[in-house]
Design goal:
- There is one protein chain.
- This protein is an alpha/beta fold.
- It has helices at about 20-30, 40-45, 50-60, 75-90, 100-115, 120-125, 185-205, 215-235, 240-255, 270-280, 285-300, 305-315, 325-340, 345-350, 355-370, 380-390, and strands at about 10-15, 35-40, 60-65, 90-95, 135-140, 150-155, 160-165, 175.
- The protein contains 16 helices and 8 strands.
- The strands form 2 sheets. It has a 6-stranded parallel β-sheet, with helices on both faces.
- Strand 6 (about 150-155) and strand 7 (about 160-165) form a beta hairpin.
- The protein binds 5,6-dihydroxy-NADP and zinc ion (ZN).
- The site of 5,6-dihydroxy-NADP has 34 residues, from helix 2, helix 5, strand 6, helix 7 and helix 10.
Length: about 400
């Protein structure tokens, strides 16, 4: 097992009706002025925003709000939110929504704490922040894991770049998680969310070194649990226990727990997807399932023991005549699973058909964003990334 640090400072309050306690929980943090940030109106229509606002009112917490965050959240909205938060004197940004709203809130947090530079400089790797305004959330979708991650992903609408930035400063103070709130999700978003949850652990699983018995068993158990419950939700979207399992998994899959002791994280599939998101505005989880099988077939020979372990312990396939065959069976089994929850496994199924010029542009941008190379299963360069996009067509 390699050395590691584990930092998971977020207070999680989980369960039915949890959002009604938001005001009391923020009051315990000593917060008096809050910017409530939300997305496309789903939280308004469902009455969630009113319930959250009422719980803040009850505790005498003054609040203002800003909606309009879109999936693949935009830098322009971050700037608008930062200006409002400063003018209002917000002490905390409360995200009511999913990963997009939380990420926009984290970016606003950075921008408000250090107004002397443009926040995009963080995502562009030109600067390291020293502060971030506190952020909390009422989560409405199990997917990105942003509620416990140190990451935020923002799209610069002027350049088409979608970039993630990781720093512990943005980790949430509080995550309020009521699985009931996710029942209104369209089936496609539920499935894309489950895919993203799986991917955050898979990106940590395919590494070269480390003898991680406990971490691996946590990771494998999480993967099996999410797959099982994704199928339950496909057939019965209102199943509370399945919603709860998937929601808790979303947090644990991206708070680093499932990779502790490994020699790094792969995250090439994420890098490839972020380019698709920046260029074609696709749904994150669906973009991941569209590239993962091609990535896996491109790299599996260089990470064979882990692919065999995955095939046996997670996908439960019969061993083939060789390790290579067993690994390929495991990849095909996960591909079949994605199909079974109606997720795309090619770019065409995702609804995009990039030209060769667009493939080269995405590969160049992906490599640039990663400092030239990326990957723990196999170290990949720009030409490899372009080849995976071609395989995924
Ligand atoms: O805006 P509303 O109206 O809420 O609509 C959203 C949105 O259209 C809708 N939705 C959310 N909760 C709902 C609901 N609709 C009905 N009922 C509910 N309860 O679902 C759509 C997707 O929401 P979004 O927040 O975009 O989903 P997700 O949580 O998947 O976040 C995706 C974003 O997070 C980034 C992705 O790249 C993408 O930009 N990621 C962030 C990470 C992080 N910060 O750690 C890690 C991830 O790997 C990922 O990259
Ligand atoms: Zn993701």
């Amino acid at each position: 097992m390699f050395d590691f640090q584990y930092y998971a400072p977020t207070r999680v309050v989980f369960g039915r009706g949890a959002e009604r306690r938001t005001g009391q929980l923020l009051q315990e943090l000593g917060v008096k002025r809050v910017l409530i940030h939300y997305g496309g109106g789903g939280a308004v229509k469902s009455g969630l925003l009113d319930r959250v606002a009422a719980s803040l009112d009850q505790e005498g917490i003054i609040h203002t709000s800003l909606g309009g965050v879109v999936p693949n959240p935009r830098l322009s909205k971050v700037r608008e939110g930062a200006a409002l938060a400063r003018e209002f004197g917000a002490e905390l940004i409360l995200a009511v929504g999913g990963g997009s709203v939380i990420d926009s809130s984290k970016a606003i947090g950075y921008a408000v704490a250090e107004p002397e530079y443009d926040v995009w400089e963080l995502y562009d790797r030109r600067r390291t922040p020293k502060a971030c305004l506190p952020v909390a959330c009422v989560l409405t979708i199990a997917a990105a894991g942003s509620e416990m991650s140190n990451s935020s992903v923002i799209t610069n609408q002027d350049t088409g770049e979608k970039r993630g930035y990781r720093n512990d400063l943005c980790r949430l103070k509080l995550a309020v998680m009521n699985p009931e709130l996710t029942v209104t999700l369209p089936p496609y978003q539920t499935a894309a969310g489950c895919t993203d949850v799986l991917m955050h652990t898979l990106e940590r699983y395919f590494t070269q070194g480390g003898n991680m018995e406990l971490t691996d068993q946590i990771a494998e158990s999480l993967l099996r649990t999410v797959m099982k419950n994704a199928l339950i939700l496909r057939d019965n979207p209102a199943d509370y226990d399945a919603r709860a399992e998937v929601m808790w998994a979303s947090s644990l899959s991206h708070n680093d727990l499932t990779g502790l002791g490994a020699d790094g994280m792969d995250f090439v599939s994420h890098g490839l997807e972020h380019e698709l998101g920046g260029m074609f505005d696709v749904t994150h989880g669906a973009g991941l399932s569209a590239v993962w099988p091609s990535w896996a077939r491109y790299v599996y020979r260089d990470c064979l023991p882990r692919f065999v372990k995955f095939a046996r312990n997670v996908m439960n396939v019969e061993p083939g005549a060789s390790d290579e065959e067993t690994a390929l069976r495991g990849i095909a089994a996960l591909e079949d699973f994605f199909r079974s929850i109606h997720m795309p496994v090619t770019l065409r199924e995702l609804g995009v058909e990039p030209t060769e010029e667009q493939i080269l542009a995405m590969a160049a941008s992906c490599a640039k964003g990663a400092g030239g190379k990326k990957g723990t299963a196999k170290l990949l360069y720009q030409a490899d990334m372009a080849e995976i996009y071609r395989m995924a067509l």
